[in-house]
Amino acid sequence: MSLNIRDILKKYTMVFALIAVIIFFWVSTDGKILFPQNINNLISQNAYVFVLAAGMLLCILTGGNIDLAVGSVVCFVGGIGAVVMDKHINVWVAVAIMLIGGALVGVWQGFWISYVKVPPFIATLSGMYAFRGMANVVMQGMTIGISDETFLNVFGGGADCYVPDFFHGEGLNITCMTTGIMVVLIYAVLVIKNRMDAQEKGFEMAPFYSDVAKIAAVGASVLWIFYKLAKYKGIPAGLIWIAVVLIAYGYITTKTTIGRYLYAVGGNEKATRLSGIDSRKVYFFAYINMGLMAGLGGILTIARASGAQPTFGQGYEMDAIAACFIGGASASGGEGGIFGVIIGAVLMGVINQGMSIMGISPNYQKVVKGIVVLVAIIFDVLSNKKKK
Amino acid sequence: MAKFLENIKKNAMLIVLVLVYVFFVVMTEGKMFSPLNFNALITQNAYVFILATGMLMCMLTGGNIDLSCGSFVCFIGAIGGILMVVKELPAGVSIFVMLLVGVVYGCILGFLVAYVDIPPWIATLAGYLAFRGWGTALLSENSSTGSIAPFPQTFLSIFSGKIFETPINELNIVCVAVGVIASVIVVAVNFLTRANRLKKGYEADSLVSVIVKSTLSVAVIMLFAYKLALAGGIPTVLIWVVAIVLIYSFITSKTTLGRYFYTIGGNKEATRLSGVDTKKIMFFAYLNMAVLTVITSYIVIARFQAANSTAGTNYEMDAIAACVVGGVSAYGGSGSVFGMVVGATLIGVINLGMQLLNVDADKQKIVKGIVLLGAVVFDILAARKNANK
Nearest Cβ partner of B126 from A66, A117, A371? Predict the structure, then answer.
């Protein structure tokens, strides 16, 4: 039994770290960080972290490869979008242009990385500068405002970017609360169904109480978050995008062949290649996908700020990489998952938000983030060493 | 003819450098060729040479880089500003303290990379972010403008200005004399090397090629000496650059330690198994990088006569590009100080040329990004071709 507890502690170290960090900021901000409005901001302001980290996860899975250019690409794509919308072109055309633009950047970088074998950090370092420069050129160094209400509402900017309450609850958004309850129910059903499947096929199963504990813990936190959101303005649009991306990537990484390939290439590239998988295509896929996510990140970023600026996206690569490593993705590839990314991204979000509420200057925020990344990676490397 | 082609191939980057230079001379209508811009080429780009030297040592060990050096230049500058301007400590003490901070950082970084096996780009990415933030914070806490000045004259004269300065357009005799001495030394070394190799029965370059090489070297050195003499004399930073380049050229080509850097980059496991402490070498590479970054910081704050929060922005890019353009492999194990010098000069020429042409900073970023990528692609394709032979 004592061994069991240690296993749980080890497996969920980062969850406990997250709880500790939340408690720390709860105390040092006099509880402000858990105000409904701040929970809402935590999600809306850090939507980009979730989206970019999901893309980064796929790159890291293929062997610890990263994309240093994402911050610049977010700015570049956002700049294009803002300029296009400024010319009163249809919003959805603009959105399509941004997504395609992001994907094309991914094709460009992915080509050099997978087919020419340029080391990823050099290829994307080059992109980090070039796309930052191009973003400046596109925006001509100026801030471009976005006034289109539809765009802002759908992608999480402006004052009304919330799912409207169909039931018109007083002081509590009933739609939001109902959604929360449904999410928990669906989650519970999925866990139980998985369990029954495993039982049928005779797989090894976790003890029953652990599944119950899982449902209780996840259910309680989800309900609590939705309760807070319901007390504010309801479900923010950003949350919907986060959910869509995370569910899609959760599915890709665990249930599809291409997902398996990503892990296989990261685990042993040569063996994967020799077993007939074109590893180049896998890298290529990972980077195109990263570009696409950077495109979505750009959309969310300019919507949140109601405009695009040439300085946007600085340090975003850091947030995304940090979220992955904190979430247990291995710097040598082949290990990591979406659940970890969620924990990592929430942790980065809490740190971002907590430091902002405490009024710590952006300069020191950079220092703290740098240290957090370093600690996460040291932890990862050391725990891997121990395993060996 | 075959030999001629081979020579061209071997010196491809040198030829590219000349072409790019001529391109900018034409585009700037000769401005680039003026004495003042010869001086600017050296004083404005001294940082590229010094950082690229450190980066070379890191890259040799297996394509490892240091992304934090630009931010660290800013951070060390801020510390220097606080020590010399705010606390008014003597220059010597401050220089020592700054160096000490660099050594501490180098040890931490080296330890993490070499002994904890943290991938260098992550360890230094953390530094990239943290030191820019910390440096900026220190500067804004100690000055309302976010920039600390003026630095004491002693400090400035060690790391900037000119030696035996004379007015512009008056021929500086010392400078010319140094040029002549340098030329004589280069020619002597060229011929002695050949004689030595012949004596030991090694393969040596033909007499003609040694003569051609010597003539070209002398021509370049004398051109620089003449132009710099007209621009007021030898810039102090040139001495620093030449000293560092010579020292590292010696280390990489003539010492056992230098050989280890190449063998680790070539095959780390084999090197370790043959009894070399590879961790120590990796540690040394990053410690060395930090020390050279501190020296760069001295030069940068002396040139701007102030410590700024923007100091060192994108320097890591220039240093990496200089190495890669100069033929240092992105996978480690090959590259030379001479190649790096050619690469750094090329980056310097591009920097200065774009500045003279008033290309704005954004487009400069684009060009630099493309140059870096282009150089790596060239390196990889060339290596692939060689492997196919």
Answer: A371
* Contact across the interface for A362 and B67, Cβ inside 8 Å: no
Q: What is the pLDDT of residue B371?
A: 86
Please give the backbone phi and psi of residue B71, each rounded to the nearest 5 degrees, phi first: -65, -35
Class of domain A41-159+259-387: mainly alpha
3-class SS letters over A101-169 = HHHHHHHHHHHHHHHCCCCHHHHHHHHHHHHHHHHHHHHCCCCEECCCHHHHHHCCCCCCCECCCCCCC
Q: How many CA atoms are closer than 13 Å to the CA of B224, on its beta-carbon side? A: 18
Which pLDDT belongs to residue B149? 84
Helix (H, G, I), strand (E, B) or coil at B150: coil
**pTM value surpassing 0.80:** yes
A168 CB-near residues (< 8 Å, 6+ apart): A174
Chain-chain contact of B381 with A131 (C-beta, under 8 angstroms): no
Give yes or no for residue B324 having a pLDDT over 90: no
Residues of A in contact with B366 (CB under 8 A): 129-130, 133-134, 137
- Interface membership of A315 toward B (CB under 8 Å): yes
Nearest to A126 among B121, B137, B373 (CB): B373
Candidates B72, B122, B366, B372: best to mutate against A (most CBs of A within 10 A) is: B122
Contact B364 A136 (CB under 8 A): no
Check pLDDT > 90 for residue A95: yes
A-B contacts (CB, under 8 Å): 140
What residue type is assigned to position A310 of the chain? P
Longest dimension (CA), chain A: 66
Q: What is the pLDDT of residues B156-209, one digit of tens each?
A: 999 988 888 888 888 888 999 999 999 999 999 989 988 888 888 888 778 888
List the beta bridge partners of residue A236: A162
- Is ipTM beyond 0.90? no
Q: What CA dihedral angle connects B33, B35, B36 and B39, to 10 degrees? A: 100
CA nearest to B131 within chain A:
A367
Residue A4: what pLDDT? Answer: 66
Residues of B in contact with A352 (CB under 8 A): none
Q: Which residues contact B247 (CB under 8 A, 6 or more apart)?
A: none
Cross-chain residue pair A318–B129, CB shorter than 8 Å: yes
- Choose among A123, A136, A374: nearest Cβ to B362: A136
Q: Cα distance from B91 to chain A (closest Cα, Å)?
A: 28
Residues in chain A within 8 Å Cβ distance of B137 = 361, 363-364, 367
> Which amino acid is located at A116 in the chain?
V
- A153 vs A147: CA distance, rounded Å: 11
Residue A171, by phi and psi: left (phi above 0), alpha (psi -120 to 50) or beta? Answer: left
Write out chain A residues lying below 8 Å of B116, CB-based: 378, 381-382
Residues of chain A with CATH 1.10.3470: 41-159+259-387
DSSP output for A280-304: HHHHHHHHHHHHHHHHHHHHHHHHH
Q: At what angle do helices A316-326 and A47-61 cross, to 10 degrees?
A: 60
Residues whose CB falls within 8 Å of the CB of residue B148, separated by 6 or more in sequence, listed in order: B78, B81, B82, B85, B86, B139, B142, B306, B307
Among B65, B372, B381, the residue with its CB nearest the CB of A126 is: B372
Encoded tokens for A168: 């018109």
User: How large is the average pLDDT for residues B354-360?
Assistant: 90
Question: Across chain B, what does the average pLDDT equal?
Answer: 90
Q: How far apart are CA B74 and CA B300, in angstroms?
A: 9
